[in-house]
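Q: Convert this sequence to structure tokens.
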Amino acid sequence: MRPRRNLTYRREDCDAREPNLPLIRFPNEYKRVGAIDSDLRFQILGKVRVRRGERDLTPTGMQQKTILALLLANAGQVVSPYALVEILWPDEPPARAMNILHRHIVALRRHWQPDLPNRSAGRWLLRQAGGYRLAVAEDSLDLLHFRRLMTEAGADDTGSGLRTYAEAINLWQAPAAADLDPRVRAHPDIVEVRYEFGAASRDFARAAVRLGEAAYALPVLLRAIECQPFDETLQARLIRLQAAAGHRADALDRYEWLRERLADEFGVDPAPELREAYESVFCNRANDPMETGTDARAGSCPPPE
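A:
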């Protein structure tokens, strides 16, 4: 049986250090994206933060920050109070858990709008459809801004698109919700956000190789793989990228290392696209080095052992 997708994310591989993610720079041409223009700016791509201009309005209490993180990970979608209670008290919630949750919600609203009238939901944290949601958009939440940039980059196969990918990836200061408890970071909604960095890294790598800029993508892809070492799609992309950047020996060594780890930890062989990446590098194929699933074959090439 192939390892399940949730095995590709390993907290112990990246969360113990939580270093800054590499900033992508293009000589003389690259300009990092400016600040999001909004009254309040919410951030989850790295540490959980709320700012108004230069003023930090991040809640200091860990429970309120945990509530905020789950709301941010859902990016403007409704989150049920039961989901919020579960992330606050995963083992056994207190008898008055819903009342405590409500007090935290009121405190968050007043933290951002001190003059808010009694019983008013205010502008940002709304009660809707039996749950709560943050009224955020692309100009107020870095996650939504990132997704818009990724969509724009995917529709542009020129150098401008590559720079848009870089702008999107550079919004990530560290893995999502990096300053929260490991238990909170392991919540499925937050892990799903973290996976978006890996997916963005793959897309950026593909575009970089196609445009002859493979070296720019290597640090980003290597960092993504630290957190998702058994993501075989990500590993296949890195093997092809290393070869395209002139590091063929490193690419072949990576395949052998990963093949041994998959066998030792899961008792499985590499997935087909990982084997195809190895064969492509081993045989020095001339087709697109980032393609997978191709039928192209260059002469006689021994299969990987």
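Confidence is low (pLDDT under 50) at residues 1-13, 15-19, 26-37, 292-305.
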